[in-house]
Amino acid sequence: MNANRSRRDHRLDFWRGLALAMIFIDHIPGNIFENVTLRNFGVSDNAEVFVFLSGFSASIAYFSKYMGGNPVFASVRVWQRTGKLYLAHIVTIMGAVALFFGAAIWFADPHWTKVNGLDLLLRDPVHALVGLSTLTFQVGYFNILPLYIVLLAATPLLMWIASRNLWTALALSLILYVAGKTFGWSLPNVPSEGYWFFDPIAWQLLFTIGFVAGTLYKAGQPVPFHRLAYAGAVAVLVAGFAIQRFSLYPADDALPLPTWLFTFDKNGLALPRLLHALALIYVVANLPFDWIDRKIMQSGATNPLARMGRHSLPVFCTGSLLAVVGQVLERESGGGLAVDVTLVGVGLLIHVGLAMWLDLWKEITAPRDAAKGATAGVPGAAASRST
């Protein structure tokens, strides 16, 4: 990680774009391509990568401004971004509901009124709509943005603590994680039963680790490479692959210990799952193929995955809605190779096409300094402005 920090690091965008692509594929259950995504090779998946990179990006985007003497400005920018995430989530979830219910009407298939917890909207629409607006009622496959909204909303507090001592921020995050596990803290689903699919009290630790890693990287002190640590991380990945491949997951009562210490629960980000995700990130970040890094940096402006990662929010929301279409067509068509290739292929092309359009739109709407310079060069222009 020795890129020139005066330029955008396209590697971050690349890995975020790759995670978005795999999330889209995983959100269309039953397609053949879901057999080659990250979750098939270990006990963690793209969600952990997404949250870690979110913390990493938050540090790079906001913490340097915070430490540069503009804490209020940096905090307001964070909350402004949080507001955009909330609006994007509400628009996306309502679009998803319309697509699911529309599929129920079009195909005369009541299955689409019950899938992913949607039946609550029919049984108790008043409370369900209140729950949707307060993020406490979450439709299946649409529950990672509420987690991100909560984590980002709390980022100014994280920055305030980190500005005093970065390691204190990490220690307090770990204490909160352990306390949440010990006392059973979690955010409830309302009006439905149970708790959030992604428990923010647990997942904040991974976000904070990403934040700390981003802060160190920005300061030119990235997490160092160590051969023993790397070998240990590789061993963790091999063990994770074996556990997943041969279904060696332990039962909840396998050991006389709290389950979060030895199971791989995703909702509460059990400790072994967290360690597997960190091992994966450490191994990938220290891959010995420097030419891959150079290729990604050199093609950063045009690399399809980096383009997607650069516009992660609109690409993610669009991909989530495309995944709904994919779920419907996968079931109603009966699936098959041709259907899977078409759904995933067209969906990913739309991902890339949207990112390309957003790049073009940004270029079109960017302020033009050249025009100002041209005006300044016109004889008499300065005199006309002064009269």
TrEMBL record:
Keywords noted in UniProt: Membrane, Transmembrane, Transmembrane helix
Which region is the signal sequence?
A: none
- The species is Segnochrobactrum spirostomi
Transmembrane residue ranges: 85-108, 128-154, 166-183, 195-216, 228-249, 269-292, 313-329, 335-358
Q: Does the keyword Transmembrane helix apply?
A: yes
The protein's name:
OpgC domain-containing protein
Q: Does the keyword Amino-acid biosynthesis apply?
A: no
Q: Domain of life here?
A: Bacteria
Q: Which InterPro entries match?
A: UCP028704_OpgC
